Amino acid sequence: MCLLIIYFILIFHRAFIITIYCLDLLANYVQELTKLIKINQSNAMLIKDIAKRQENLEKKFDDQNVQILEILDLLKKNEEMRSELEPKGKEKLKKMTNSIK
Hints:
Blueprint: H1 2-85, H2 89-100
């Protein structure tokens, strides 16, 4: 009976040591996981910041594109008005000869 009690004490002692070892490993893993979570949160914040900046750049690009299209439209209208105001064919030739005289 005494040997049986000693045997159970040794088994429980060994189980206790294994449990402590596992808890120690778990504590190390928790620390590593905490570090990884902090890194992940930092990366997520950086990605959000980059996405915001990209949105701002796209808005500026769109605004500039609209302005460029407006300028091109004005240039086209200006060119059309010039072509309408310029004399055509014989009238142009008469004006040129009159200006030479």
